[in-house]
Amino acid sequence: MGKKLIVQKFGGSSVANVLRIQNAASRIAGCKKKGASIVVVVSALGNTTDKLIELANKINTNPSEREMDMLLSTGEQISVALLAMAIHKLGYEAISFTGAQVGIITDSAHTRARIIRINTDKIKEALKANKIVIVAGFQGVTLDQDITTLGRGGSDLTAVALAKELKADECEIYTDVKGIYTTDPKIEPKAKKIGLITYDEMLEMASLGAQVMQARSIEVAKKFDVPIHVRSSFEKDSGTWIIKEVKNMEEVVVSAVTLNKGESKITVSNVPDRPGIAAKIFNELAAKGVSVDMIVQNVSHLRSTDISFTVNKTEAKKALKVIKKAARNIGAGEILVDTDIARVSIVGVGMKSHPGVAAKMFGVLAKNKINIGMISTSNISISCIVQKKFAEVAVRALHDSFGLAK
Amino acid sequence: MGKKLIVQKFGGSSVANVLRIQNAASRIAGCKKKGASIVVVVSALGNTTDKLIELANKINTNPSEREMDMLLSTGEQISVALLAMAIHKLGYEAISFTGAQVGIITDSAHTRARIIRINTDKIKEALKANKIVIVAGFQGVTLDQDITTLGRGGSDLTAVALAKELKADECEIYTDVKGIYTTDPKIEPKAKKIGLITYDEMLEMASLGAQVMQARSIEVAKKFDVPIHVRSSFEKDSGTWIIKEVKNMEEVVVSAVTLNKGESKITVSNVPDRPGIAAKIFNELAAKGVSVDMIVQNVSHLRSTDISFTVNKTEAKKALKVIKKAARNIGAGEILVDTDIARVSIVGVGMKSHPGVAAKMFGVLAKNKINIGMISTSNISISCIVQKKFAEVAVRALHDSFGLAK
After folding, report:
1. Where, in this chain's numbering, is ATP bound (chains A, B) (predicted)?
2. Looking at the domain assignment, is residue B324 inside a domain?
3. Based on the number of CB atoms within 10 Å of its own CB, is B369 exposed (0-12), middle (13-18) or buried (19 or more)?
């Protein structure tokens, strides 16, 4: 069409009430006025989804996942209708669609469905008629016409997938923060908004606790090279662009410091040092659906070792039960649980080619008299488990030492 | 299948909160246990629909009807999911469907769509698998996959239409009253529950102000001879059966007394007594979308007449504006508006073959010193407009005189 095509996603906080819906409508109309073709993806209003889950749990503590999707998908349906009405009020043409109506076809894994394909005919037709197209995020439909949802943060995925499918020029993610920060500004007021960041760094940050965007959607954006612009619904300034490669990136060693206080550490001591023992432990956990995060094993004793791992706090009890049984079976020793931990991480594609980054991190923590409980490294991140009470001190010290406040 | 097939409809008050949803689930499960095949139609929880309308009006006082349907249809979708979860909790299999999913195909008259046809394949398949089928009331879908709604009380229509299409043995309408009463028990405590009533009487009562069932759904039930059982969600006793013909009906002259306080009377005086004048007035009203109810014309003066009619109170202002203009054009006289009126009616198929019913009605009102402002009669009803302050007295007197309290 020659026109610029933009996919805009508005999260729950950006449409939490009537005023915010009107604000979102104004932004969309403003963009339309400049001549772009616009497809908007919306989440459920504010905390609607949580409220619906609560209601369902009052009725059935173990609700059918198919019915859960039927229930939760109403949240986004309400949003798209109201946003369309708000845009009409401003004198622009807009039309709303559910995930089923636009043909976001998914598999039948209810509550965590994966998109198989998107039929964009309806959207293209509406765009051709110069309408602003509003699509319910987070939801799809199986080939059998059953309604599905894409899991927490699924609206991000809807937006990125639509941007890919429609070959959009950009995908804007509107949220209640100004963009991606070098660290949480609530912990370190000197935190700076990052102008450009790579998919890989963003993925790493998402998995390390940064909650601005859903990890799966970043994976899809990376795979299909969809440029993402994370920005505030309430400000004109541009936010953070998430893209493939950042020029001059070698100059920036560390891009951000992240913090995750949501994990607990479990240590199994005196694990017999035989092949297959670790597999046994973690197979049991997987079988019970417990996701394990960091795993560290030290050969520290004669013929036995200690294995430590972290799990989401909410799964600690379940994990402990599984592990106690497993420990008995394999003849391991004491089990230690530490809920008083925090994971502090530094992220940056630059560190790959800069030796000594890890050493510097450990040095900064040591200088601040912070003991390191576990260490884990990836290609572009280094994480340390520290005592929870030192978490904020650690974040500020690292943020400062790696020059992120500049 | 040989099994008895029952369509059960639960109105908003029957699923207004968690406890009531559980109560509805118990009733459904109890019926299933007895061996019937069951299709349930549900309305939105309590006053959900009104709340959504309110929300929409805050955003746009003149919302698009397509978007309104998109918005309102979420109410029933929430109900079906929760009800399915509640039934699962009781150990029974159930599956929910939206109007679109079961294929309730309508025209595209948004907010007041008419059902064109119903594809019952999905329902039949689920019934064959011994599942309780739960269908969202009030909604359908156009051939273009746009969501539509059927207008106020539309869930009744969904239930009756499904009962017809599935050739159900009966259609149960669960509500918060015990059935249809000889008159409003709030006005006359001696009012009795009616055991059997004909479609025609029920239709007449609905149009005269009784609000238990939507008139359109009774029309459909009559057309296709679907037996309806209106009953309480909270009691075991049977309620009122609405059927084609009631045996021994000739013994019952009057079945019920109804009251409607929602109308205003407009009188156009000194209307020239020429052909086509009345048509002119009522054409103007129709053109502006004002529904007129009772119309009475008396030839009372030389070459001129008075025309009185009633309209819904909410449309009185609009009607007056139209009428004032029309009166000037046709050279009529003064316009009088009376908002202080009530319509009291007696309904009964028996009155067709019993002369003197009207005379008796007028006599009862006269004996109670109640002046009659307008009179209108149909095949099976007689209505009198009286002063609003006498309405309850009139209802009680008629209820007593026609032996309905016995």
Report:
1. 9-12, 175-176, 181
2. no
3. exposed
